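Hello,

Our lab assistant flagged a job as stuck in the queue for most of the afternoon. It eventually completed. Since we weren't sure the result was trustworthy after the delay, we are filing this so someone can double-check. Below is the sequence as submitted and the structure that was eventually returned. Let us know if re-running is recommended.
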Amino acid sequence: MPDEEVLEEGVLNPIKTEIQDPLLQAILEENGTSLTAPTELEQPAPVPNPTEEVDCVVIGTGAGGAPLLARLAMAGLKVVALEAGPRRNPITDYATDEKAQSFLFWNDERLSAGKNPVAFGNNNSGTGVGGSTLHYTAYTPRAQDDDLHLHRDFGVGVDWPFGIDELEPYYTELEQFLGISGPTPYPWSGPRSKGYPLAPLPLNGAALLMQQACAQLGIQTSPAANAALSARYYQAGIGWREACTNRGFCQAGCNVGAKASMDVTFLPLAEAHGAEIRADAFVTEIERDEKGRITAVVYEQHGQTVRQRCRHLFLCAGAVETPRLLLLNELALTSGQVGKHFMAHPGMQVWGTFSEDMRPYKGIPGGLISEDTHRPKDADFVGGYLLQSIGVMPVTFASQMARGRKLWGQQLRDYMRNYNHVSGINILGDCLPHESNFLELADEKDARGLPKPRLHFTAQENEQRMNAHSEKLMRDIWTAAGATDLWSFERYAHVIGTARMGLSGDDAVVNPDGRAFDVPNLYICDNSVFPSALSVNPALTIMALSLRTADKFLAAQARLDGNN
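-- returned structure --
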């Protein structure tokens, strides 16, 4: 999906919700109601007992934190999750409106630097109980084995410390639990123990057009795997979830529960087994004893400073906030890799105008995929990319037009009259780690008085060659489909790396099980630990790592108990 403009700096836990729509303001005033008062879900939580020590604290409730939270709770551990954002009710709080849903994004300012500064806001992270999965577009292809072995195959980059066989059982478990809609068989995958549990979602206009054009050019395509239900689905431990209504507003939040965001899947499962989730809890400090073990986490919640003691900490705050917390607290810094080798997926897009009525807001946004370009035979670059059709909402598209084509005023309005006739294709490609791409703490402070994160990103020669290769191919596809007014937009999606895992504490922050090399009771589990970016969307792999990390932790604890 395209990324919107970076929103102005705000505070994730505002004291007052501002209503921008004058019509909505008038309706509320006429009915004597207001959205400025806290809802039942936003009421201040009781202050926990400061002397109580829990088994595990999990920071973050997105794709990295939620699955392991459920796993740990189901194992009988006393676990608490801290989420910086609020808890929302999708049925009552989610509007089918882009601008109204900006509260789903991490809107505190992050500073971008380098020759290709990365956009934030809705591009890379979210806030609220469920994290970024509240606004992700539910694209869930699996990584392939060679995605984990760029150095083995090309002599550059860094290999993962294990192969795809370590992730395959978790991929299968997730696909069955979440109710992934996709084709069986899937053309580009290796052996699978099970096919997708649901049939693919319907293809939207852009997907159908791309399918026809790729067939003309000899490019194989397939309906994509999506974590949105193509039929009503019974989810173990949760109950029935309703099917996708194909509104196309996945990035603005799903108000029917069809999209497998963590707030309707793993988090209710975790709470059913005794986990406690504390919303509006912004972590600022991580305390340690004289031996270097973590003893407590300090967070701000509703104007109060709260301290929670714990035996183990799982840091799952994403590839910006995870290294930021580590740097702020001078934690796990021995390897020198915290904040280093930041990666962002090349996401080159090509758009065209068609005579057909395309209605790009309808249907699942990423409906069609091709992995024929996973390792292109004519490539002059390392790795590869996938192709996918794009669905796009109107405000998102208009903001991109302003940036990508420098259209404004009447020119922009004139182009937007063709909105229902535009369609796009984009890539999701691998990115090599590079020393010039990194995160640091800036001197500039945020609204809480903490240093803002500054991320440096410059597309290197490999990414530039991949963009050129993919742009030519996508232009060929849309030309075959009869497009006019073709234009391209270079962008970079997702935030990856910054606390990578490896076999040695000399060049990695965590070991293959996610445990920090120099802090024995700290685990990190999110896309910050990826040694390489992968040539697929990261959500499914983050969840798989989350379950794997939980299982490795539980096995280690069982061994310790057995030796006592």
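-- support follow-up --
The delay was a queue issue, not a problem with the job. The result is valid. The longest helix spans residues 539-563. The two ends are 52 Å apart (CA to CA).
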